[in-house]
């Protein structure tokens, strides 16, 4: 058995090891953080290569379904959440701001990889990632209009544009290599690629958790609060979405549910005022824990699909 196939077989343990390293090695986390964009691009390239262009695009009907899903996830849900806060007369606390940001954001780049680790089709998750990022400049406009605390709309649109450019470039390169170099990848080739993506995911999470260890050293109770909030937001969205889609017999229930709970809200940070980001950076670090534990803790639920 090759080392990459071995890593793919034990992918869930490798992800957990990445979480542990992110907490235990704050110096390494701080060193890796500036390299996150490059690592994300590599992860997207490997994902696109593994899935291939034909399985990703599938049919125009799949694109239409994906567009509807994006509008529900990134527009209807955050507007509903803000409307509920208004009806209850609740102010916009740091926690509610974090949840609103999460609900407004597109999929994280690793959603397709989590689908693979759970034994489900990753193509719907990749479509949600690409279309969700492409539509973000439209879906976030009403959210920013209702929440001026989000900061400057132009800064977010610029960040979304940069992210979309990275996603498209990495996807095109991955599709091109698959189409012209490895059209028939085979099971062993897919498993080896999965091993590479597991390594990329484990390294990326170390950089994303750079704010967790300092918060633990300073205020463990505060970290426990944000960790509980991250689990409730992430797993709550995944479980609720899955139960609804499974009841409706939707074929893409698992990848869509994974995307529903795992969002790339970090791209909004470029527009937020500095005084608003400290607590959100802690939430971002804590958010990686339920995200990377999804293939382990939610497997039994998703196996019922």
UniProtKB/TrEMBL annotation:
- InterPro entries to which the protein is assigned, alphabetical: Na+/solute_symporter_sf
Keywords annotated in UniProt? Membrane, Transmembrane, Transmembrane helix
What's the protein name?
A: Bile acid:Na+ symporter, BASS family
Whether Ion transport counts among this entry's keywords is no
The UniProt entry, under Gene3D superfamilies, shows:
1.20.1530.20
Q: Which domain of life is it from?
A: Bacteria
Q: What is the lineage of its organism?
A: Bacteria, Pseudomonadati, Pseudomonadota, Alphaproteobacteria, Rhodobacterales
Q: Does the keyword Transferase apply?
A: no
